Amino acid sequence: MSGLHDCRKAFSDTLVELAAADSRIVVVANDSIGSSNLKEFKRRFPERLVNVGIAEQNMVGIGAGLANGGMIPFVCGASCFLTGRALEQVKVDLGYSRSNVKLCGMSSGLAYGELGPTHHSIEDLAWTRAIANLTVIVVADPLETAAAMRAAAAYDGPVFLRLSRMPVPVVHAEGYEFEIGRAPRLRAGSDVTLMANGTMVSRALEAATLLDADGIRAAVVNMSTIRPLDHRAVLEAASAGPILTIEEHTIAGGLGGAVAEVVVESHPVRMKMLGIPGEFAPTGSAAFLFEHFGLTPEAIRKAAIQLVKESAGGTHSAHSGN
Q: Which of 174, 192, 266, 314 has a Cα at 20 to 30 A from 35?
């Protein structure tokens, strides 16, 4: 696979595949048939799709009820509304009750761009990561989307699956096997580890390639599961050197915070977190917002260079590139 791909197609194709093989698979949506790419599922399985309208709290509750009845519901909606409006239901009806519901947070992060702060979903990982019993997954490409959905369907318990609507390149090899709680190392390196997930993984890989010219060998780890976090992958990175986390999310409570919790307790090492710096993101295209918050390959490169210099006490031979 080459070029850029919308993970929602892999989501839709895999959902239909799962439903064809298992009559327990159902979908609950909040008037988001188009944006969640559910048209083919509706055509194939109209009796297994419940559209509750713009009523996210009801949507999650209905999903929990279906799970209690033995079904495997995929509850789909824009991540900003699915998590923000229905957080109490996610906490009580899913986490506390251990309901076998698969929450699908669509168009997450900054994907809605021009619709502004009400539609930016940059807090969803902090909210969901704090809920006990809830597995939290952020997919990076179509291959991981399909594999993570199959893993979520097979897993007995609540899952939050975070998907973007922004096209991304494929970063995994064909035959990639996703495992909940395991963070694959996509690139070896000994000077710094770039830890990313979702749309930031491909950008981290681009930045690592740029860093080669600076004499810096950067490893890249796809931390696709936020909860449970792969502690071994974090400790391996910390043993090698400094860690730079990159996320399409606020740096408060997201990927960087999760990694820092492990680092500070088990293997202190210098870190830097790239993301939204504790503020509401402005209105603008996703491309503008990534540039604004330093989430481009070039900005990641510069942050990594600075981190390596700080970690080495300013003695590293790499040039700044300025």
A: 174
Cβ-proximal residues to 119 (8 Å cutoff; 6+ apart), any chain: 78, 80, 107, 112
Q: What is the DSSP letter of 121?
A: B
CA 68 – CA 87 distance, rounded (Å): 19
H/E element, 283: none
pLDDT (tens digit per residue) in 183-221: 999 999 999 999 999 999 999 999 999 999 999 999 999
Q: What is the 3-state composition of the chain as percent helix, strand, coil, each rounded to the nearest 5?
A: 40, 20, 40
Greatest Cα pair distance in the chain: 65
Q: What is the spatial distance between Cα 156 and Cα 101, in angstroms, rounded to a whole number?
A: 9
Torsion angle of alpha carbons 297, 169, 82, 59, nearest 10°? 180
Catalytic center residues = 56
- Helical spans, DSSP H, in 140-199: 142-154
**What secondary structure does DSSP assign to 294-314, as a single string?**
T-SHHHHHHHHHHHHHHHTTT
> pLDDT tens-digit profile of 13-42?
999 999 999 999 999 999 889 888 899 999
170-206 core/surface letters (b: 16 or more CB in 10 A; e: else) = bbbeeeeebebbebbebbebebbbbbbbbbbbbbbbb
- CB neighbour list of residue 131: distance below 8 Å, 6 or more residues apart: 90, 91, 94, 95
pTM of the model: 0.94
**Res. 241 pLDDT band, cuts 50 70 90:** very high
Cβ(296)–Cβ(290) under 8 Å?
A: yes
CA 14 to chain centre: 18
Grade residue 322 by pLDDT with cuts at 50, 70 and 90.
very low
